[in-house]
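Hey team,

Filing this mostly as a record. A colleague (T.K.) asked me to run one chain through the structure pipeline before their review meeting, and I want the input and output archived in the tracker in case anyone asks later how it was produced. No errors, nothing strange. Just documentation.

Input sequence:
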Amino acid sequence: MADSLPRLSVVIPAYNEASRIERTLERIVEYLNARGEPYEILVVSDGSDDGTEAIVQRFAERAPQVRLLAYQPNRGKGYAVRYGMLRARGERILFSDADLATPIEELEKLEPYLTQGYAIAIGSRPLRESQLVVRQPLYREMAGRAFNKLVQLLAVRGIHDTQCGFKLFTREAAQAVFSRCRLDGFSFDFEALFYARQLGYAIAEVPIRWMHQEGSKVRLLRDGLRMLRDLIWLRLTAWRGAPEPHSQPETPN
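Output structure:
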């Protein structure tokens, strides 16, 4: 299986995830092995300094489908996702948060949309059919809803949840979109969907099961202000259309 061209790539950005990355990999590998299709898992260590990389390397010795991509220094979640998406070899590429707030089994809800012809299928928490098993603290949930209203107003109309960390792309769409992205922080989600729309890719928003996990790296005030800045920048540059793709996948300094 390890030598076959992957049917699926799973990209997991990881910054100091030593406390849970092994458990996450065990769960994903068990699930994907049961499917019987060739796959790869790319763990992108975004400048981790807590043992994350050593844990992933040890795990990869017994699970050859797992590969560690690592660099220094820390560049931000958007950079890590972009770094992995542009190196993934699968026909379909899933970006999943390391905490598995959206269980890996929810992949089965996204896949049919790509089969139907959508280029991108994204998990969405606010949809009526979604199951929020464990909700975020109320202040985070309300702040997220307010920010998404701004995102819909200024960038990605009609998408109720741009920030959920569970998105499935065709390889073509992933390469086209992420080769154009520039934002290194948490704003990468709405930037990617914004460029996807500009490039004409169909996006399906899919209800999912989701459970809040402790340990979020998002700092509400600091990162919220940065995301607002990025949103305004994206809106101001929208008249130019989607930027030209990078000539090659980025390499860290």
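Quick notes for T.K.: The radius of gyration is 17 Å. The chain is about 40% helix and 20% strand.
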